[in-house]
Specification:
By secondary structure, this protein is of the alpha/beta class. Helices cover 23% and strands 33% of the residues. The chain has helices spanning 65-71, 105-117, 139-148, 175-182, 196-208; strands at 2-7, 10-16, 28-35, 38-45, 54-60, 80-85, 96-101, 124-130, 152-158, 169-170, 189-194, 216-220. The strands form 3 sheets. A 6-stranded parallel β-sheet has the order 10-9-8-7-11-12, sandwiched between helices. It has a 3-stranded antiparallel β-sheet with strand order 1-2-5, with helices on one face. Helix 3 links the parallel strand 8 (124-130) and strand 9. Helix 2 (105-117) runs parallel beside helix 3 (139-148).
Length: 225
Amino acid sequence: MSSRPLTATTHAIVVEKPEAFAFGPTQFTFLQLQTEEGMDARPMSLATSPTRPHLEYAVRLSDSPYKRAFAALQPDDEVRVFGPIGDFVLHETRPAVLVAGGVGITPLKGMAEYAADKALSIPIRLVYSNRSEDEILYRRELEALETQNARFRVLHTLTRTTDDGWQGKTGRIDQKLLQEAARDLADPIYYVSGTPSMVVGTLRLLRGLGVPESDVEIEAFRGYE
């Protein structure tokens, strides 16, 4: 196991993949840790593709016993993985618009890795919202995936940036940005991942654009705001 900060407020761990553990890109598991209050298991999206050799998880840090234990994990520590669970899984034959806020990027990063590793023919657009540039999780990894997969493109937007050097978009995800992401895509599926309020807000925007609910998959990170 390895452990590393992703940004000042987020942390990731990489765990050895159990033998014969198979999952779809990308479901979630329960991750059980030893905390100061005893054993605790929480639902946690897998932040990497089943095509990759390890399992990865990332959280936004807080002062909860579980998050403190997560950030303090050492290479020799043991965790337990239960799953996989859920139907938030990439459809391999339809164009995809991935929509993430903050740490909600985790399962969508895994989907993008899977599409690149499997050389899927579908176009994929990622709309990714963060507060500031230094809060962008997995920025280098996403740039590498854009290089690896010509059909994959990232559209960043920052909601609280004051950085004059930022050349990208600013403000919350809106209908215009979603329309730009879906431009030229035939019958895409939208995958929305983030806090419940972000997911609800995005669903409202998509409904306003006339996107049927059957074309939207959601993953809400309860308790991780």
